[in-house]
Amino acid sequence: MEHSCFRCGARVEDGVNFCPSCGAPQIRVPARPAEEAPAAAAEAGRQPGEVAPASLQHERAAVPVEDGGVRGLDWTDALPSAALGGACGAALALIPLTSLVFPVWMAATGAFAVSFYRRRRRVPWVAAGTGARLGALAGVIGFVPFAIGFAIQFLWLQRSGMLREYFSHINTANPDPAVQQRMQQFVTWLQTPQGAAVAAVCMLIFAFLGFLVLGTIGGAVWAAATGKREPQGFSR
After folding, report:
1. Which of 33, 72, 138, 204 has its CA 20 to 30 A from that of 18?
2. What global pTM score does this model have?
3. How large is the average pLDDT for residues 80-102?
């Protein structure tokens, strides 16, 4: 059988790869039917060319797996869970009795966020990588109320003289006169507005790094310890 060349119109036998007249290739790859895209949109209840709603896009971000767990983050549940976890960790890090072990509460922000997220999503486990992302988010959010509370406490201690008394007590316990002199100079500088501001900013920078790093670790460890064991390691 023969067919016409699409370029020059010459008759070409079937099975011949090139037109003997113009040399045009005769193998054509059929294009995807135009009906497939409208059909897919119709199945989703949308008009052709309409963008999927944001809620559906968020839902696709969290991928459920066959045993009931979830990988990835659904931000509609991740943000409230991280905010609540960060607030709990920050509050425990500011309370006088529990603040003695404040690094534990920095890490606990991630664990709290993972627990709240699993409860909101109604899933038995989340991947360790998802827990790390939740922990990092919870740590950043938890740092905000912690920074406000810490700044208020530091300003009160500095103005009431309790901070000076604390360092003076440490200074008298050291018998070295040179160390006592340097400590006294530091306490005097700390009582100035510039000294107090620099000290507060430095401590807040370390606190932010602590919340971020320890929150990430806490979220990942809690997700891995309380959920499904994943021998392949962190999920995306």
Report:
1. 33
2. 0.61
3. 92
